[in-house]
Amino acid sequence: GMDAIGLIFLCSIDVQTRHTALELLRCVRSLQNAIWRYSSKDQGRKSALQDIEPTFVIDVFEEAGEDIVQRCYWDSGRCFDFRKEWDTVPLDITLQSILESHDKTRWACCLSELVKHAAVLCHDAVDAARLEVVQRLANMTPSDFG
Fold it and tell me: Is the pLDDT of residue 78 over 60?
């Protein structure tokens, strides 16, 4: 669904595209919640399952995002970079600030960890995003690479 599209666009190197993707994820949650509220008023509560609200990708980002930023901020991917052992993360660093920064490596590290968390709680959205990316890559790959 649209959660999967939001995840795909979060992979963009363009900051505005990432920001728009995050807004899309917020809108998906708001729209789905409004639909459920409207339909539950219209039909009445019929089962306990309707009381269980699903977890959206944006929920995972909002709940785990800041902790992930703290853990991933100094992960540069270089084995000789030991800054994370003694440097603290600057106080003004948030998931939103990393999303909006032009530091593609830092955003990629945080996004990777966020997607790992989302895969546990929002498996369908992450799987749909994975399938879409695989399909797009297959369409770009010449068939002789097979």
Answer: no
